[in-house]
Amino acid sequence: MIGIITVVAIFCILVLALNIRWGYCGLLDFGVAGFFLIGAYTGAILISAPSESYLFGVRHTVGFGLAWPIGLIASAVTSGFLAFLIGIPTLRLRGDYLAIVTIGVAEILRYVAINERWLTRGVQGIRDIKRPFESFFPAASLNSDIVLLALTLSILAFFFIIASRLYRSPFGRVLRAIREDEVVASFLGKPVSHFKMLGFVLGGVYMGVAGALFSMYTTAIEPYQFIPTYTFLMWACLIVGGSGNNWGAILGGTLIMGLFIQATRFLPSIPGQHQLIPALRYIAVGILLIVVLRLRPRGLLPEKAIKTRETQ
Amino acid sequence: MLKAEEIVKDFGGLRAINHCSIEVEKGSIVGLIGPNGAGKTTLFNVITGLYKPDAGRVIFNEEDITGLRPDQICQKGITRTFQISRELKIMTLLENIMLGFKDQSGEKLMRGILNSTSVKEQERRNLERSFEILEAMKLYELRNESAAILSGGQRKMLELGQALATEPEMLLLDEPTAGATASETAMVVTFIRRMREEQGLTILIVEHKMEVIMGICDKIIVMNYGEKLMEGSAEEVRKNKQVREAYLGRGA
After folding, report:
1. Is residue B98 assigned to a domain?
2. Which of A20, A180, A188 has the most B C-beta neighbours within 10 Å, making it the best mutation to test the interface with B?
3. What whole-number percentage of chain B has pLDDT above 70?
4. B16 CB burial (10 A radius; 0-12, 13-18, 19+)
5. Inter-residue contact A22 to A243 (CB < 8 Å)
6. Which segments of A117-182 are extended strands (E)?
């Protein structure tokens, strides 16, 4: 149970990040899994204990065994920097190009993780990723789970507050204006590419931190955990919850990742048909998406225009 | 104040603007007219940086602004409005106006998050000015409604207000009364006059309604096939034979 809340909270960070990119700024990002991956691997490589293996007869070591805060910060930096690199050529282009590039980069990164074994140990994955305060709370104990949950929830809360403050700030106002009509924003003197870049990088930072938390949660990561399915699940969460609304992002993330994807793990498996429930999960998400789009096209918690306070 | 010199703009094989030069003097209202496809909006787009001209220069306040980005040109003091109004629909009227102000410190990422007293103070000042603008536009009552509910003429007024919030030295208005009713048109016209008289704005205006153009412009420039046909006072334009031919065709 604690594990489920943790992983759902991690995915909620991803949905929040997607909300900043798409919900605030209108950036069509299909590469969530890639930013998640880069954060997870950065965290994993830095935090995990050094482990040796032989590759073509050459001994090499993966893992630095550094402290977890370094892993978290580093994953924020690498993922944010990746966003910056992708943003340079693509943010000036129309939205659909960004979509193509991001999904491409995410898949390339996954194949890099599969093939560059000196860095990522390939499909074997990286194991023994340490959790916070492991010397006080031994691995695989209830206390260790609670510590990670507390850390994840505090980061989620912190990110939520930042995202909400940004939404209401003049900065968020420019992002939303760019989403509505970037030509108008530019004629009102706003350097559109600059604002898009900031929104894109901020989303990347969020996703990177979510990745590092995920690596600590699973304590072992492998490339298969970062397939594009997760990108599209995040989109489903945001659309169902209500794009542009941070509470909607959390609601969508909790509903789909919690109820549909995670909680169904506890259903008794059907004898002889153990592939049935995993397949039904995605069908159920699809049906939910269709129903919500039909009845509440702007999500369960749609974005509302901000009423400016006039107390002064 | 604004000079466009020998502007050329091609779209593929089509020459939309052909060595066109115009000049707008400080504090004047200049009308730009011509039949559909004469190149008026294209010229606007070249001046405001949406298109880069293939030849020619745009000079504003003695400074060459050719090829700058739209946001840079806005920062220099030129703001434009659009033929088909492009209000930001999900946002409220108030937010539409608030967006216009320049140099908002809260538009910096960190300052936006921190929302310090200086940011709040600036927001409060901008809010008061937005109220004044909305009142002048007779849109104050609707300030917290989303812009999607407005009528055609109200949208035009909102766009004007948004443009005013950028505190421009010069306004380029692309058909400011398109889609407005007769009474709304009268309101826009009164407002344009007031902006010039009270704030000393320089205004270049594209308009198809002749009663609007003839009534408020100090000078009228007529374009046809991407070239300047003539310029002069309303009276001179009305009497000009070439202008009549451009609009109505050559008499049999």
Report:
1. no
2. A188
3. 99
4. buried
5. yes
6. none
Structure token pair of residue A184: 């108008």
User: In this structure, what token pair is assigned to residue B108?
Assistant: 């910096």
For chain B, the helix, strand and coil percentages under 3-state DSSP, each to the nearest 5: 45, 25, 30
Residue A308's pLDDT is: 65
Cβ separation of A191 and B71 shorter than 8 Å? yes
Q: Is A311 on the interface with B (CB under 8 A)?
A: no
Residues of B in contact with A186 (CB under 8 A): 69-71, 74
A70 is written with which tokens? 């370094």
Domain region containing B9: 2-87+150-248
Q: Does A310 touch chain B (CB under 8 A)?
A: yes
- Condensed to tens digits (0 to 9), the pLDDT of residues B114-146 reads 888 899 999 999 999 999 999 988 899 999 888
ipTM of predicted assembly, 2 dp:
0.90
Res B82 pLDDT > 60: yes
Evaluate whether residue B172 is within a structural domain: yes
The distance of B113 to chain A (nearest Cα, Å) reads 5
Evaluate whether residue B160 is within a structural domain: yes
Tell me what the mean pLDDT of segment A157-184 comes to: 94
Residue B94 covered by a domain = no
pLDDT, mean over chain A = 90
Residue A310 has pLDDT above 70, yes or no: no
**A172 near B CB under 8 A:** yes
Q: Which residues of B touch A202 (CB under 8 A)?
A: 109
Residue recorded with tokens 């950036």: A27
Of A171, A188, A202, Cβ closest to residue B162: A188
For chain A, the structural domain boundaries read 2-227
